[in-house]
């Protein structure tokens, strides 16, 4: 049997071996080149990026909240301040049995279930090793009570914090407003960088309107951490910048006078410095204590405020819409003079009612037996409805609307507070658009005495009065006088924003009639003149709460208090050098001359007497 033998080819084997070595060498060169390229990228091109990532794994940024700016009144009294207080806080990681600890603390310090629930929600948002507040604003007694048992509560301690406080409580609650905890809805829209470390935000009033100025700028700490993300060292600190301090035009003394003078009546009082537009008084009664809102008001307390029939949370000065009643008559009279529809000496007989041509319905005057023959001066002085029924019909609703609009009736004044409403000065176009109905002549008549669809806020009435006293110079009312910080100061307001072209003689005539309301023999606010040495120009008003049928008679003593007419009064003083304009609304007060006018008198007198004293 033959056997076959393979013959080796040394040359071929040598070539194969050499080619494999070359291929391996080239591969190694490529790998080395790739490694060198990567090293160059990491060390040169991407150095800054990866160094930052490395640092972030070791260095954590901890925000430092700024101190919120303080709010002062015009004389430097603090209306919103930051006060040190004690807070009971827990570090869950250091507590062996959290539920048991909460139960024991609840018994010790009488903590509500609502606060326990709030703590649990906040705890879940935080790291287990961070401190979470359970109770804020601890009293000295509560601090002392906990201090005795402190060794038995590991992971629980009392810390000093700055908390917003409102020393004047309900007196300035609707002006200053309040801060509250940032809710989930707000968190979705707020710039997170600005609010890191801050749990509160302005909710209403000046606190909300000027949030950007009051907040300040957050600082931060660079903290070196270990692998478990716990702080071991502070590397660097950038201090926060405190918020700007805000000085208001408000005078808290006058505010208290107005608030107290409203007494048993719910309502509002607004006073404006005529030459500057600064709001001196912005009182809404009843008010509420804003302090519980800062740390979180209980559901029971908040429901009590919401369900109260007196509506303490309702800002009547800014949002209260009332029929202005006879307070519109000076403006309507001025419209008649400016349009040339009537003249100041035009006389009309008032029998106690007014009838449209070929209509049996009687539009009654407040004085059942009438005022007899009256001109415009007497009609304003005695508040004759019949005279203004006739003038309104002569003007027509559209002219009335256009003229009153210039004085901010039916539109916002532009005050620096969020939430202002428009009010309403009706027109044919308005009724067609919103009611899909035609306008009727009878509606023109009742609009002429400030009833019907007409609605105005106390702020709008005060602003209109100031504009009239200023002979048509429109100055936007404002509450903030100045904003002050370490490197910034801004003065606000004081310049005329518009000028209503009015004839001086016509304004003089209207002011004459308004002066006689207080100082005339038959003036509806005559009792106001007895205790003053200067002259006040004013106008009383009564706003019906419900409509009286043709054959019925209004009997104040026979109806429920809540159904009685509202009492209004507008005024400015002194007549020959106007400095302050005031508007008062006393809900269900009945008579402007006897209820609302004395309130205005107290405010005006206190302000003018202050002007005689040296100012700080």
UniProtKB/TrEMBL annotation:
The gene is mrdA. Pathway: Cell wall biogenesis; peptidoglycan biosynthesis. It comes from the Bacteria. HAMAP family: MrdA_transpept. The lineage of its organism: Bacteria, Pseudomonadati, Pseudomonadota, Gammaproteobacteria, Methylococcales. It is found in: Cell inner membrane; Cell membrane; Membrane. Its EC number is 3.4.16.4. Catalyzes cross-linking of the peptidoglycan cell wall. This is Peptidoglycan D,D-transpeptidase MrdA. Belongs to the transpeptidase family. MrdA subfamily. Keywords: Carboxypeptidase, Cell inner membrane, Cell membrane, Cell shape, Cell wall biogenesis/degradation, Coiled coil, Hydrolase, Membrane, Peptidoglycan synthesis, Protease, Transmembrane, Transmembrane helix. GO terms for molecular function: serine-type D-Ala-D-Ala carboxypeptidase activity. It comes from Methylomonas defluvii. The chain crosses the membrane at residues 21-41. The keyword Protease applies. Residues 64-234 form the Penicillin-binding protein dimerisation domain.
């Amino acid at each position: 049997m033959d056997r076959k033998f393979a013959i080796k080819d040394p040359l071929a084997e040598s070539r194969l071996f050499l080619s494999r070595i070359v291929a391996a060498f080239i591969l190694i060169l490529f790998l080395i080149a790739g490694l060198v390229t990567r090293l160059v990228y990491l060390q040169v091109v991407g150095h800054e990026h990866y160094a930052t990532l490395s640092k972030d794994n070791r260095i954590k940024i901890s925000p430092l909240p700024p101190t919120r700016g303080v709010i002062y009144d015009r004389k430097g009294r603090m209306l919103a301040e930051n006060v040190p207080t004690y807070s009971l806080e827990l570090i869950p990681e250091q507590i062996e049995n959290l539920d048991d600890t909460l139960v024991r603390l609840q018994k010790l310090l009488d903590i509500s279930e609502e606060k326990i629930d709030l703590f649990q929600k906040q705890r879940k948002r935080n790291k287990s090793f961070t401190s979470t507040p359970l109770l804020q604003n601890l009293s000295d007694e509560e601090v002392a009570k906990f201090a005795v048992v402190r060794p038995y509560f590991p992971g629980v301690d009392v810390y000093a914090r700055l908390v917003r406080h409102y020393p004047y409580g309900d007196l300035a609650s609707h002006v200053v407003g309040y801060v509250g905890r940032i809710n989930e809805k707000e968190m979705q829209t707020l710039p997170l960088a600005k609010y890191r470390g801050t749990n509160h935000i302005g909710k209403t009033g000046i606190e909300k309107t000027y949030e950007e100025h009051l907040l300040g700028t957050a600082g931060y700490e660079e903290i070196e951490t270990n692998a478990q993300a716990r702080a071991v060292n502070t590397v660097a600190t950038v201090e926060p910048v405190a918020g700007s301090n805000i000085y208001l035009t408000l005078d808290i003394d006058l505010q208290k006078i107005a608030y107290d003078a409203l007494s048993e009546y719910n309502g509002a009082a607004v006073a404006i410095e005529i030459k500057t537009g600064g709001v001196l008084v912005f009182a809404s009664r009843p008010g509420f204590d804003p302090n519980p809102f800062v740390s979180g008001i209980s559901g029971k307390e908040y429901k009590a405020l919401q369900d109260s029939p007196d509506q303490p949370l309702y800002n009547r000065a800014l949002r209260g819409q009332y029929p202005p009643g006879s307070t519109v008559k000076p403006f309507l009279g001025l419209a008649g003079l400016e349009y040339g529809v009537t003249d100041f000496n035009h006389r009309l007989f008032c029998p106690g009612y007014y009838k449209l041509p070929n209509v049996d319905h009687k539009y009654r005057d407040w004085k059942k037996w009438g005022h007899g023959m009256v001109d415009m001066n007497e009609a304003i002085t005695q508040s004759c409805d019949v005279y203004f029924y006739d003038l309104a019909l002569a003007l027509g609703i559209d002219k009335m609307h256009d003229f009153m609009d210039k004085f901010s009736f039916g539109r916002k004044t532009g005050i620096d507070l969020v939430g202002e409403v428009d009010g309403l000065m009706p027109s044919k176009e308005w009724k067609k658009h919103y009611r899909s109905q035609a306008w009727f002549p009878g509606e023109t008549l009742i609009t002429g005495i400030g009833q019907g669809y007409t609605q105005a806020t106390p702020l709008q009435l005060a602003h209109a009065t100031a504009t009239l006293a200023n002979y048509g110079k429109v100055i936007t009312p404002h509450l903030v006088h100045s904003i002050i910080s370490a490197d910034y100061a801004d003065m606000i307001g004081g310049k005329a924003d518009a000028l209503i072209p009015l004839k001086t003689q016509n304004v003089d005539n209207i002011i004459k009639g308004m002066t006689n309301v207080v100082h005339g023999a038959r003036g509806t606010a005559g009792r106001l003149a007895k205790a003053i040495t200067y002259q006040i120009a004013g106008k009383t008003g009564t706003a019906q709460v419900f409509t009286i049928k043709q054959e019925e008679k209004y009997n104040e003593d026979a109806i429920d208090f809540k159904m009685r007419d509202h009492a209004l009064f507008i005024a400015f003083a002194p007549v020959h050098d106007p400095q302050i304009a005031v508007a008062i609304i006393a809900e269900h007060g009945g008579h402007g001359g006897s209820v609302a006018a004395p309130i205005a008198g107290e405010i005006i007198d206190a302000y003018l007497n202050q002007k005689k004293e040296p100012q700080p």
